[in-house]
Specification:
The structure holds two protein chains of two kinds.
Chain A lengths: L19 H12 L4 E5 L2 E4 L2 E3 L3 E5 L3 E4 L7 E3 L5 E3 L2 E3 L10 E5 L5 E3 L2 E3 L3 E6 L5 E3 L2 E3 L11 H5 L2 H6 L16 E7 L2 E3 L2 E3 L5 E7 L2 E3 L2 E3 L3 E6 L5 E3 L2 E3 L4 E8 L2 E3 L2 E3 L7 E14 L2 E3 L3 E6 L2 E6 L2 E3 L3 E5 L7 E3 L2 E3 L3 E5 L16 E2 L17 E4 L5 H4 L10 H13 L6 E4 L12
Parallel strand pairs in A: 1-4, 2-5, 3-6, 4-7, 5-8, 6-9, 7-10, 8-11, 9-12, 10-13, 11-14, 12-15, 13-16, 14-17, 15-18, 16-19, 17-20, 18-21, 19-22, 20-23, 21-24, 22-25, 23-26, 24-27, 25-27, 26-28, 27-29, 27-30, 28-31, 29-32, 30-33, 31-34, 32-35, 34-36
Antiparallel strand pairs in A: 37-38
Chain B lengths: L8 H16 L3 H15 L8 H32 L4 H5 L5 H19 L5 H8 L2 H27 L3 H26 L3 H5 L1 H10 L1 H13 L11 H8 L1 H29 L1
Helix pairs in contact in B: 1-5, 2-3, 3-7, 3-8, 3-11, 5-7, 5-13, 7-8, 7-11, 7-13, 10-12, 11-13
């Protein structure tokens, strides 16, 4: 039974001395019947708060749940709890304890329309399924960019992911947590949240069958930090101005559709990094203005289509360890280096159903006007492996000499130069990709 | 009756500069150059919407590399050859060749550099104005000035019209493609891979490459992934604008000296 609008709360913020409002709220949480609706008026409620039964805690504008700098401000241990409309602040800062503003271990929690700040982690879900995290704003301590190491070398540690103890390893000076942290759970909906200035934006590990839709993550370290999580869908999210971009590893059967990975421009930043990702669809995303737009390594059976890969320093880095990728109907425009590859990438195909990709700057013949160029497109990677062994080669980027050799290679495929061949290049960019 | 005093350096230089300005009013190369600048300046407006702010520099970079640099070289060449018929009279003047050349070179460099502002005016008026665009414009002005004085020097060294044209175009190809292709060709040499700073030096010394690196990594802020490429490369990328100023100044001076030597050679001949 749901009891609506307990009027007692109208007088809460003014009652008694010490931290009476918080005490009264705690008592009400304890005494309310399961399923009750507690409408909490504006006021400053000193925490911490633990919810161990199904409840709907609805904050009026101006309602603040304030922690004392230790532990979690709100701990949700029961299923079917709703927390909405609050400003939640003041969690502990213990990385080893995974302190959070809102810590959830009960299934089907609904966390919506809250504003979260002054915390370690924002919203932390641990072994709880079916949560709905909607329209929250999570603000970390800093929106400043950092110089960080290459995530492939040091930032992401699979061993830590396996143990679930992600927070013990990062940079010692970094005392920030993640915006939304999901571990060992499934079936969530994460929609319409704004995350800014935390350590990582959305953190996934061992989390399955979750939909992440319409969120905006900016000015964090990794916009998306993701491992060992299968069958998830990312739709219409924006990851921008992050130090290292979005990194997905060791997962299967994902769908990434209509997302924007833009302006992740630090020295080691990626728009979207995929490592050991299998059976995944990546379509209609915009990957623009990043240091390295799309990085794919050691992945199998990817379908990469209708994406716009534009204005990146390197558009697509595709390792030879990746197999079975079908790359078609994408638009490669304005990248200083469209392709970075160490070989010929013969294990992947650059056209499907008779349609390849659009490559800007290509002067292609289309005598029968079917929208498909009459001759294959050779996209060379002149610098190839030198980028790793001799990084100074990057200073020749977009140089006339490099452009000249690329121009020649596109027409006659000079021997000994790594690159890819698109057998059915498109004359115009796919409308969806554009 | 007393002899008239020899005019001072400044007087001759000023007169030569004024003459350069007046003669360029009728110079078809200058008219073509200005038209080219105007056309190139409007190119960034083809970039839609918010892309204008970030795309203008890239357009202007390509315009300068592939068109404006050659045009400025030819303008300098034509300026040198314009005095072909009067050369004997000019160098016979008592003030000597130095002040005359200084005035001519200064006027030419000023004319070309100032007109380079046409590259950025349309983008700035259309709302794409920024410090980065100003940096690109300043770099384009400097590179244009260097090319004009280089053309002037070629013109004084190679007095024949056709040969001068061939030499100028050869110089342009060498500056535009030569350094890059050479460095690309030798990038795999083990000794150079161990000493990347040596490999980087010729690139830094080329004003066209210095301008490209400045636009890409300072103005456009393309995220260069090779900052650990070596101390010199790292310094260059992080101080590209400073280096461009230094290298342009050096080349302006070197081109002026080369022009002076070329003009003197004619005197001796």
């Amino acid at each position: 039974m749901r009891l609506r609008g307990l009027l007692l709360f109208a007088a809460l913020p003014l009652a008694g001395f010490g931290n009476p409002a918080g005490d009264v709220l705690r008592r009400q949480i304890t005494e309310s019947a399961p399923g009750a609706v507690l409408n909490v008026p504006a006021g400053d409620y000193a925490g911490l708060f633990v919810i161990e039964k199904p409840l709907h805690l609805i904050g009026a504008p101006g309602a603040i749940l304030r922690g004392d700098g230790t532990g979690n401000v709100v701990t949700i241990r029961a299923a079917d709890v709703e927390l909405a409309g609050f400003l939640v602040r003041g969690s502990g800062r213990s990385l080893s304890d995974d302190n959070a503003a809102i810590h959830i271990s009960g299934a089907r929690a609904v966390i919506r329309d809250n504003r979260v700040l002054d915390m370690l982690h924002g919203i932390y879900v641990r072994k709880a399924d079916g949560c709905r995290i909607l329209r929250n704003v999570v603000l970390g301590d800093s929106a400043s960019r950092e110089t960080i190491d290459d995530p492939l070398r040091s930032g992401l540690n699979p061993a830590d992911a396996a143990s679930g103890e992600f927070c013990a390893e990062p940079l010692s000076q970094d005392r920030r947590g993640n915006g939304i942290h999901l571990w060992n759970s499934s079936g969530h909906l994460i929609e319409g949240n704004i995350i800014r200035g935390t350590r990582d934006g959305v953190y996934f590990s061992f989390t399955k069958k979750t939909v992440v839709r319409g969120n905006r993550v900016e000015r964090v370290r990794y916009g998306l930090h993701y491992m060992y999580s299968d069958d998830n869908e990312f739709d219409g999210n924006t990851f921008t101005e992050n130090a290292a971009g979005a990194a997905l590893m060791f997962s299967k059967r994902l769908v990434l559709r209509g997302n924007r990975f833009v302006s992740n421009r630090s020295q080691r930043a990626y728009g979207l990094l995929l490592q050991a990702i299998d059976d995944t669809r990546i379509e209609s995303n915009r990957i623009e203005g990043n240091t390295l737009g799309l990085y794919i390594e050691n992945s199998n059976n990817l379908s990469i289509s209708k994406n716009r890969v534009a204005g990146n320093y390197v558009g697509l880095r595709l390792s030879d360890s990746t197999q079975g990728a079908r790359i078609f109907e994408n638009d490669f425009s304005g990248n200083i280096h469209p392709i970075d590859t160490s070989g010929t990438n013969s294990a992947n195909v650059w056209a499907a159903a008779g349609r390849g990709n659009h490559w800007d700057g290509e002067v292609a013949l289309d005598l029968n006007r079917d929208g498909i160029a009459d001759v294959p497109h050779h996209e060379p990677d002149l610098f190839g492996g030198w980028r790793r062994t001799f990084p100074a080669i990057g200073l020749l980027s977009a140089s006339p000499g490099e452009q000249l050799v690329r121009f020649i290679h596109r027409r006659i495929a000079l021997p000994g130069i790594p690159g890819v061949t698109d057998p059915r290049p498109l004359i115009r960019a796919n409308e969806v990709a554009r | 009756m007393s002899a008239r005093p020899i005019p001072s350096f400044l007087q001759v230089a000023r007169a030569a500069a004024r003459r350069e300005w007046l003669s360029h009013r009728l110079n078809r190369f200058l008219h073509a150059h200005v038209l080219l600048l105007v056309a190139a300046g409007f190119l960034p407006l083809l970039t839609p919407g918010e892309g204008l702010m970030s795309g203008a520099g890239y357009w202007i970079l390509h315009a300068v590399l592939y068109a404006v640099s050659l045009s400025a070289l030819l303008l300098g060449l034509s300026s040198a050859h314009a005095e072909a018929e009067e050369f004997s009279w000019l160098i016979g003047q008592p003030a000597g060749i130095g002040p005359w050349l200084a005035g001519k070179a200064a006027a030419l460099a000023l004319l070309v550099s100032t007109s380079a502002s046409l590259l950025i005016v349309p983008a700035a008026v259309a709302g794409g104005g920024s410090r980065e665009l100003l940096l690109v414009g300043a770099g384009a002005a400097g590179v244009s000035g260097v090319c004009a004085l280089a053309g002037l020097a070629v013109g004084f060294w190679v007095r024949d019209g056709v040969r001068g044209l061939i030499a100028t175009i050869a110089l342009w190809f060498a500056a535009l493609f030569g350094t890059d292709l050479l460095l690309l060709g030798i990038a795999g040499v083990p000794v150079l891979q161990q000493h990347p700073d040596v490999w980087v030096l010729p690139l830094m010394a080329n004003p066209l490459d210095a301008f490209r690196v400045t636009v890409l990594f300072s103005a456009e802020r393309a995220a260069f992934s090779g900052l650990d490429a070596g101390r010199l490369a790292g310094w260059w990328v992080t101080h590209a604008a400073v280096w461009l100023g230094a290298v342009v100044s050096s080349w302006l001076l070197a081109a002026a000296v080369a022009a002076w030597l070329g003009a003197r050679r004619r005197t001796d001949g």
